[in-house]
């Protein structure tokens, strides 16, 4: 997948973003009484355009999920289930290689509680969440709800009773709550690289449609479906009194196939809900279970056994097909779906899971694309029966298609296992292991296509067709393409499938193809480490300043985060430029302060921030508070060129800027000014 590059923001826009504390989500809250002991806490947010606020269900490995802490819960009240969220959207982040779930424009969180302490007068709730645009901020909000004392039922407005069962409305009362919103340290962690506009969402649905359509075409070429095309078309043309009637029946048959699969997509979405599917698709156990299912299906495709629905189902449905008319044709289409399940089931299941990660109506779109490809041949050959003569004869090539699909299912299965491994951070299936497995799978597939390997249901072959040979060469080329990935090649063609390069036995690939660094740990100044591109970097401000004074060089102060996407993009695409990298290595001292570090400060160094009033307990808190207090900013990436006394040398700080020339000129401005003053 292509990474999105943001357009450079103009000077005034930079001033707006970088010179003030950002707060793109405005919250209001209220409490709704459902009974004498049951209440619903309601949190509503209005989110500024283009900002994303991340859900509590966004998976690990991406932006920080919303965390809800009920401060005085113990002994006072119990939660009824998990907090419910309004509509969210899920999209793929190609930097972190996870599906992120987030709110746009508005958000509502509802939490039902049961009061156990009847003397309770207030409820305290803390939110910790992240919002991102070009930059990200981490925000803490504190809410205090006053528990209303109700002496008699009171009427409430329709807006206040939203999402409440009408049967409960007689006993509902609401009280607007004073929200004590204490702005705490707001530290940037990560950015999002998925598109957040309607056109991008439409592109996502179109991609689901085309993938599903191609999958339907692949299913069409399996032994379970392909032989039924001439049989079914011949049935309609022979049983119909006129050619026009035969065509209309075949069209109804095709539409019935589409109807059945679209209803399946609707049922999946309706039963589980879009948000539940999003959460399910990134759940560890679901990914493990689906890995096992896909491996089982792959074994079936490869000829180990047949997976079929009970024959009684097909017999009952087939008996209904004799009723005639539209109902009979509909049951014929249902019989096709059941009989062909051993071939179409794995494809349909895989499509539904992939579509579920997109959320919304994606499962419906996926089933429509799949069934359209499945239904079109029946309709077209009924309209033009002469085309049947051009169809290739059924034979061993159909089993070859099935075997190829089995290899693809097996390769895809390890993607789901990788998802689970990444979330748990077990490091069992690191990048090198994943690639080695894929190389083995696709290498074996290439040998199979060249006729060097045969499987149980293969027909004897005396020669290899040109088409099979051509496809075998493509698979072999792809296998060879994967091999350099073991030595650190990025493999952009399959971006998003293997684990990221940072999740590997060696960040530089097997054998460390970079050949090591010119600088060793023994050569590093005290307090320094090797950063990106083997740059000497300090993670402690005081130690970095002391070193800068000793070598009489200016300082590049880099407010960053371990999981900050745009921070990594700046390092990968801007800092890697030879001219910029030379400046960073030779002319400046790099101090990178990680605002998301969870390492706890010694008790003697913990304090209460004078700027925000928040307790500073971790290293990340410390550097975030330093950024807010000294520079009145809370977003990352955030760069400042300083002299050795901490005075800003450049006219303005710099944020995310993919324009290499402008970033280099900005660095040069600060360095030249330092040289003039020294």
TrEMBL record:
Annotated compartments: Membrane
Family annotation (InterPro entries): Cyt_c_assmbl_TM_dom, DsbDN, Thioredoxin-like_sf
Cleavable signal peptide: 1-19
Sequence ranges assigned to domain Cytochrome C biogenesis protein transmembrane in this UniProt record: 206-418
Transmembrane parts of this sequence: 205-229, 250-272, 284-305, 326-348, 360-384, 396-413, 433-450, 471-489
Keyword annotations from UniProtKB, A to Z: Cytochrome c-type biogenesis, Membrane, Signal, Transmembrane, Transmembrane helix
Subcellular location, principal: membrane
GO molecular function, one term: protein-disulfide reductase activity
Superkingdom of origin organism: Bacteria
GO biological processes: cell redox homeostasis; cytochrome complex assembly
Cellular component, GO annotation: membrane
Domain Thiol:disulfide interchange protein DsbD N-terminal: start-end pairs: 35-144
Membrane topology summary: Multi-pass membrane protein
PANTHER family tied to this protein: THIOL:DISULFIDE INTERCHANGE PROTEIN DSBD
Protein name: Thiol:disulfide interchange protein DsbD
Natural source organism: Flavobacterium segetis
């Amino acid at each position: 997948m292509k990474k999105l590059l943001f357009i450079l923001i103009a000077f005034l826009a930079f001033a707006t973003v970088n010179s003030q504390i950002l707060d793109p989500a405005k919250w209001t809250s209220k409490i709704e009484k459902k009974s004498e002991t049951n209440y619903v806490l309601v949190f509503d947010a209005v989110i500024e355009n283009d900002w994303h606020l991340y859900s509590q269900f966004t998976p690990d490995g991406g932006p920080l999920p919303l965390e809800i802490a009920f401060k005085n819960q113990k002994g006072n009240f119990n939660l009824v289930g998990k907090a419910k969220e309004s509509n969210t959207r899920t999209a793929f982040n190609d930097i972190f290689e996870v599906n992120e779930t987030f709110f746009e424009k508005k958000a509502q969180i509802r939490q039902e509680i049961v009061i156990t302490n009847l003397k309770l007068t207030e409820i305290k709730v803390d939110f910790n969440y992240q919002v991102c645009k070009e930059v990200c901020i981490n925000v803490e909000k504190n809410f205090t709800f006053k528990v209303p004392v109700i002496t008699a039922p009171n009427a409430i407005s329709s807006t206040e009773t939203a999402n409440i069962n009408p049967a409960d409305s007689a006993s509902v009362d609401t009280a607007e709550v004073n929200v004590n919103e204490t702005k705490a340290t707001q530290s940037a962690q990560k950015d999002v690289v998925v598109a957040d506009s309607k056109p991008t969402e439409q592109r996502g649905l179109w991609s689901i449609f085309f993938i599903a359509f191609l999958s339907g075409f692949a299913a069409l070429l399996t032994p379970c479906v392909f032989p039924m095309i001439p049989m079914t078309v011949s049935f309609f043309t022979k049983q119909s009194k006129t050619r026009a009637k035969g065509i209309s029946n075949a069209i109804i048959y095709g539409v019935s196939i589409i109807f059945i699969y679209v209803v399946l997509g609707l049922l999946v979405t309706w039963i589980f809900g879009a948000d539940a599917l999003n959460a399910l698709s990134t759940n560890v156990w679901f990914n493990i279970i689906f890995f096992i299912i896909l491996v089982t299906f792959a074994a079936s495709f490869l000829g180990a056994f047949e997976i079929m629905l009970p024959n009684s189902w097909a017999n009952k449905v087939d008996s209904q097909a004799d009723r005639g008319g539209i109902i009979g044709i509909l049951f014929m289409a249902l019989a096709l779906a059941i009989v062909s399940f051993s071939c179409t089931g794995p494809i349909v299941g895989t499509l539904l899971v992939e579509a579920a990660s997109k959320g919304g109506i994606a499962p419906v779109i996926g089933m429509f694309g799949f069934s359209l490809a499945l239904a079109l041949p029946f309709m077209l050959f009924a309209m033009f029966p002469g085309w049947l003569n051009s169809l290739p004869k059924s034979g061993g090539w159909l089993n070859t298609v099935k075997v190829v699909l089995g290899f693809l299912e097996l390769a895809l299965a390890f993607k789901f296992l990788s998802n689970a491994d990444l979330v748990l951070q077990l490091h069992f299936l690191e990048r090198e292991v994943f690639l080695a497995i894929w190389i083995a799978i696709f290498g074996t597939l290439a040998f199979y296509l060249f006729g060097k390997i045969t499987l149980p249901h293969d027909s004897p072959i005396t020669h290899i067709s040109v088409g099979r040979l051509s496809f075998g060469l493509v698979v072999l080329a792809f296998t060879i393409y994967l091999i350099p990935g073991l030595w650190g090649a990025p493999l952009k063609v399959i971006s998003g499938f293997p684990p990221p390069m940072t999740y590997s036995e060696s960040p530089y690939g097997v054998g460390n193809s970079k050949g090591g660094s010119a600088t060793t740990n023994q050569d590093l100044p005290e307090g320094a480490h090797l950063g990106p591109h083997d740059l000497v970097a300090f993670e402690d401000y005081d130690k970095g300043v002391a070193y800068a004074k000793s070598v009489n060089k200016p300082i590049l102060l880099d407010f960053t985060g371990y999981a900050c996407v745009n921070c990594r993009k700046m390092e990968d695409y801007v800092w890697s430029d030879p001219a910029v990298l030379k400046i960073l290595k030779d002319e400046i001292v790099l101090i990178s302060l990680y605002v998301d570090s969870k390492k706890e400060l010694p008790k003697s160094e913990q304090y209460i921030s004078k700027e925000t009033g928040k307790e500073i307990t971790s290293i990340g808190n410390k550097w975030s508070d330093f950024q807010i207090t000294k520079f009145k900013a809370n977003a990352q990436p955030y760069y400042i060129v300083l002299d050795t006394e901490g005075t800003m040398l450049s006219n303005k700080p710099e944020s995310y800027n993919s324009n290499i020339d402008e970033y280099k000129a900005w660095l040069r401005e600060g360095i030249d000014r330092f040289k003039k003053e020294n």
